[in-house]
Specification:
Blueprint (H helix, E strand, L loop, with lengths): L5 H21 L13 H21 L5
Helix pairs in contact: 1-2
């Protein structure tokens, strides 16, 4: 079975999302004053993580007819 392109792209998105969300959780919270107090790094990191996980799941599914 050849490697589906969704798997490496999904892993890349998931890794970048985890890094960004981790920075949002553990980083300095003083920088969010410019964005009306919203933790943009945590929000978009979570979005990337979910999209990456979705791509990995779709890429690793067995072919069903």
């Amino acid at each position: 079975m050849p490697l589906d392109i969704r798997v490496p792209i999904g892993l890349m998105f998931a890794l970048m999302g985890a890094l960004l969300a981790g920075y949002g959780v553990f980083g300095s919270h003083d920088i969010y004053g410019r964005s009306l107090g919203l933790n943009i790094n945590l929000i978009w990191g979570s979005v990337l993580l979910v999209c990456g996980a979705f791509l990995v799941v779709l890429g690793t599914r067995t072919g069903r007819a």
